[in-house]
Structures are given as C-alpha cells and as structure tokens.
Amino acid sequence: MNLDQLLTGARDEIAQATAPIDDRTLTRVRGTVRRARIQRHTFESVGAAACAGVLGLGAWALSSPDGDPVDPATRSSTPEPSSAPTTEPTTAPTSAPTTAVDDGPVARAAEVDDATVLARLSAPRTGERWFDEALDASDALDALFTPAELANGPEYHLYLVGDREASAIYALAFPPVNDDVVQWGSRVELYEIDEDGPRAILCPSARTGDACAKDFSSSKAVADDDTFYDTLTLPASIEVGDGWALSTETVRGDVTRVAGLPASLADANEKLEELTSLGSLTVVRRELPSSVDGLRSYGYAVLTPFGTILPIADADVPGLDYLGITWDDGVDRSTQVADGDWARYAQAAGAGTCTTAQFSVESTHIPAQWRTAGVTADGRDVVVPVSGSPLATAVHAWQLEHSGTIDTDTGQTLTGLDAGYRYATVGEFLDAQSLYGVEGPDGEWHLHLRPEATNVVWECA
Amino acid sequence: MARPWEQLLDQVARERWPRLVAHAALVAGSTSEAPDLVQEALIATFRGRARFTTVEQAEAYVRRAIASRAVDEARRRRRERLVALRAAAQPSPPDTVEPPGPGRDVVRALALLSPRERACVVLRQMEDLSIAETAMVLTLSEGSVKRYTADGLSKLAEILGTHPHTETDDERVPVRPAPTPRIIPGGAR
C-alpha cells in the first residue's frame, strides 16, 4: 500500500466515524459568526460612533469568564426542569413544574406555572445573557435616532446591557421630561441590534397575557413583539416570607413598565435591601424617605438583570387594600372617599401623599400600643393604635402640618385644615381608623395610612 | 428567514462536517483537536465578506482555513511550551497520545511531522492544491512548500514503512543547476 492510499484510507475512516455536526455546535458557530458580522457591519455602515457599543460587547465577550457563545434557545438538554434558582424556591406554588423547562419549542405560553417560571429564570431557554454592568453606549444612539432627533429630543441614555445570539441588547433610558404642566415619568425601552438593524422589544415576557409596550421612541427601529426573555418573566406570585406573598398581576399588565424604570431614577436616595433572589431577578424592598420619627418606610420592587426596577403595584401588596377591610366596629369604610386612583390603596404611615412607599416599620413595635380592629379581605388581622398612642399623634401631626394647597380663586396658599385636611384632632384621626397595621413577613408589622388621612397637596411633581 | 450566508454555513456544516473533521485530524495530527479546528475555521471563513457562493467553494475555503489555523495553533502551543519549560526548567511533558480510533496509525505518524510539513503534505497530496496555492495558504515561499512536502512525505514513508508518494517530481528541490550537461560515456544515445 502506498502513502496516498494510506492517507486517503485514514481520511475516509475518520470521516465515516465522525457523527454529523450537532445542532448545539452549529448554533454556537452561527451565533459567533453573526456577532462577528455585526461588528463588521457596524463598522462599515453605522459609523464609528455606533461602534463603541458593539466594541464594548466584544470586549465584554473577551473578558467574560465564560467565553462561549450564547447557548441556543433550542437547547434541549440540561438543566433539569426541577432545578431551582440558587436559593430554595420561594415562590408559590412550590409544586414541580408542569412543563419541562427545556423541552419543546421555545415559545410563549398563556399559562406558565410559577415553578417553571422560576426554573427558567435560572436556566433560560431563550439564550439571553446580561452583563454584570451596563456599558455606556451613548455613542451608539445614532443607530436609533437621526441627528436631528438627537439634537432636539430628550436627553437619551443608551446602555449596552446584554446579548442574545447575534444581537446586542440595549436599554434606552429617559430622564423625566417636563412640559408646561406635567412631568412625564422616566422609563426604559429595550432594543436589540443585529446586522439587520435595531428592533424594539415590545413584549419581553414569556407569558402571552403580560403587557407589551404600546410604542417606542426610536425612529430607526422596527417593532419586535416576537422576541422575549425567560429571564425577564415574572412569576405570578413572589413569596417573601412564610405565607406572605406579593402578586405581580398589576405590574405584569402595565404597558409603560415592561422594561422597568431606571433604578437610579425610580426614587431619590433610596436604598435597596434584597429579600430573595429568583435567578435573574432580585426581589427587594426599597427604603424610601420617611418623615415621621421612629418610622422607616419601604416599597417592594423587583430588580431586572440589567438594572432596572419594577415596582410592585399597591394592588398587589397584602394589606394595602384599605377599602377591603372589614372593621369590627361594624362601620362600612369600603367606599372610596377621595377622588383619583391614588386614593384606592393605603400608603406608608411615615411618609406624605406623594411617596411611593407602601409601608412603614417602627423602630420598636410595642404590642400594647395596638389593638385588633378588623380583618383584611384576605383574612389578615388589622390592628390600630390605642388611644393616646404617641406614634398616632406624631403621624397625625405631620400629615396635618404638611397639608397645603392653593386657593384657585384667590391664589392664596392654604395649609392644614384650611387646605382640606380632614382630621383636626388625633381623636378624629383615630376614630376614622386612619392608621393601621397588618403583620408582614417574619412577624414584622407593616403600618399604613388610609388614603384620606395623608397630607393634602396641590400636586405631586 | 435565514440569510444566504447562514444557509450556506448550515449546508456546509451539515453536509461536509465529517469530511472536514477528517481533514482537520490529518492536518493537525490529532483527532481530538479536529472538531474545534473545524469550528474555528467555519467561523473564520464565514465572518468575512462572502467570496463564495456554492458549498464546494465554501468548503474549499474552510479546508484552507483549517490548514493555516492548524499551523498557527501548533506553533503557538510550541512557543508556550518552550516558555513554560524555560521558566520552570522542567523536562518536556510527553506529547499527547493519540487515542485509539480510525486512521490512528496515520494520524500518529502525521503527528510526528512538523506542523508545516503536515500541512504541506495534506494540502498538496490530498487537497491537490498547487505549490503556489499551498504557499499562499500557509504564507510560505514556493520553495519552502516543496521542501516541507518532500521532507514530510519522506518521513511519513519511513514511519509507516511504505513507498513514498509516486508523483514526487515537483517535490524534488534542485540543489544547484548543473553548469554543463553531463555526458555519459557510452550512453544509449
């Protein structure tokens, strides 16, 4: 046998013993090529400015400890569906997922049980990766806007926050925008950019019933309501303590917050305290400014893996449904007195009307200072301060003293009772069951104010 | 819908993967490194502007990319090993033993060649690349290609105990031109 025959024979033997390329390897190769082509495409067509973000992506990918390209969304192997997030499952129901996490097509579903949602938060099918830190990509804004729009529009901030297969994921943040009357809230929009250009991600949740953003700001992007992320899909219920759970129903239906709020703009000077980790999501309570001595005030929120914040709506926090309380004294207080959505739910006892804080906590809770006075719609005991409570006196005093508005006829500033505050004395304040408490997680008492007992203001801005 | 380059990539990968892996095993002298080498070559080939429109053309590009990357990779590893050995003053670690498998003897024999010798042998003998094409792929002079090919074939033949390649004329390297025709006394002419 000559050398040619040996070489050819060896080649044929090896080829015959080699299995065809598997889908995972091919997807990895394809994804890497896509990213490389995006980078080239960006250099050539979008311009040097837009390169910064993509180069940032490249730099991140190079420095990432896991240098492998994105796992395909079609992955069908490990991990097992029953694998929980890094902490023990804390979300009800705790039963095993009814659907296999990584089996079957990667598609949205109308119903996804929470165990499955939780498992996917840690082991997404959808291939997205979020950077540890968002990278400033303001230089790439011209991929989304024309020069004229950038010159005349709001002060946009663009961040490179992750990638998915061949796409780079960007978060576009808006600072609050003022017109003559209203300060429009800040918000965040998500975009993916690949070699075909930018797409606005309108429906990031894997649950079909969850909200989709109705519009987006970029004039250059096309609407994308197909792309979704397992890592941004909220469970229906989040348990933060034994038998104490937050619902996410309202926030999941909010079309203005599908990508959350900029955490730094959600509220000034707030501190975040982690309550539980749900894989890519982190449940926190936000410490917000508190005005009454001895009270600290908080609101619940979920942090997304790219740093935005999804405040849990008042409707979804146990204890805030003042109108649903059944009072032991037989008085029906189920009718909303003040106008406006703001008055549908109670708020934190230690802050004013314009707060987003949902509950306050005493530095020291003295049970003797409280008495049971009713029960919430979901069966939780409601306590109110006893007569002579120093805390009730302090809360009433602050709300009364900080009430103020403008007489629209005279233009005069009105304060206190003249401004329309309802309760002249702490006795009236207590009789109206204005300040109440509901036991929260870990035996902590959450103190709330009925909406009408909060200070009167001209407007919240 | 997949873009044209994606369709071509899929087709090359799905239809030609075993052949490409076999090619990589020979050119790298290692079956275990071959799949990674093919992946890298596919990426390198398709990340740039398309210079090909058919599967055959694309495969040819991938094969050449495999060869050039195999040489680069082998040289890089050798450099790293030398640096490490100098630093640690340690004896050279044993070379990786080729595991049992198809074509093992040939792959093991190829592994004993230098990376350039191996690449030249495979490209010239199995891919039918010309000397000029091989020189371009491996960034060598044509003379070097001839020399590496001849040396590689000679070593292989010795290791495998077989006859050298039968068509070795173009691998013969003239040492120096003969100044005058040699006259063979009593020659047949």
Automatic annotation (TrEMBL), chain A:
<feature type="compositionally biased region" description="Low complexity">
    <location>
        <begin position="72"/>
        <end position="100"/>
    </location>
</feature>
<feature type="region of interest" description="Disordered">
    <location>
        <begin position="65"/>
        <end position="103"/>
    </location>
</feature>
<protein>
    <submittedName>
        <fullName>Uncharacterized protein</fullName>
    </submittedName>
</protein>
UniProtKB/TrEMBL annotation, chain B:
<dbReference type="Pfam" id="PF04542">
    <property type="entry name" value="Sigma70_r2"/>
</dbReference>
<dbReference type="GO" id="GO:0016987">
    <property type="term" value="F:sigma factor activity"/>
</dbReference>
<feature type="region of interest" description="Disordered">
    <location>
        <begin position="162"/>
        <end position="189"/>
    </location>
</feature>
<dbReference type="InterPro" id="IPR036388">
    <property type="entry name" value="WH-like_DNA-bd_sf"/>
</dbReference>
<keyword id="KW-0804">Transcription</keyword>
<dbReference type="Pfam" id="PF08281">
    <property type="entry name" value="Sigma70_r4_2"/>
</dbReference>
<feature type="domain" description="RNA polymerase sigma-70 region 2">
    <location>
        <begin position="18"/>
        <end position="79"/>
    </location>
</feature>
<dbReference type="InterPro" id="IPR013325">
    <property type="entry name" value="RNA_pol_sigma_r2"/>
</dbReference>
<dbReference type="InterPro" id="IPR013249">
    <property type="entry name" value="RNA_pol_sigma70_r4_t2"/>
</dbReference>
<keyword id="KW-0238">DNA-binding</keyword>
<dbReference type="GO" id="GO:0006352">
    <property type="term" value="P:DNA-templated transcription initiation"/>
</dbReference>
<feature type="compositionally biased region" description="Basic and acidic residues">
    <location>
        <begin position="164"/>
        <end position="174"/>
    </location>
</feature>
<dbReference type="InterPro" id="IPR039425">
    <property type="entry name" value="RNA_pol_sigma-70-like"/>
</dbReference>
<keyword id="KW-0731">Sigma factor</keyword>
<dbReference type="InterPro" id="IPR014284">
    <property type="entry name" value="RNA_pol_sigma-70_dom"/>
</dbReference>
<protein>
    <submittedName>
        <fullName>RNA polymerase sigma factor</fullName>
    </submittedName>
</protein>
<dbReference type="InterPro" id="IPR007627">
    <property type="entry name" value="RNA_pol_sigma70_r2"/>
</dbReference>
<feature type="domain" description="RNA polymerase sigma factor 70 region 4 type 2">
    <location>
        <begin position="105"/>
        <end position="156"/>
    </location>
</feature>
<keyword id="KW-0805">Transcription regulation</keyword>
<dbReference type="GO" id="GO:0003677">
    <property type="term" value="F:DNA binding"/>
</dbReference>
<dbReference type="InterPro" id="IPR013324">
    <property type="entry name" value="RNA_pol_sigma_r3/r4-like"/>
</dbReference>
<comment type="similarity">
    <text>Belongs to the sigma-70 factor family. ECF subfamily.</text>
</comment>
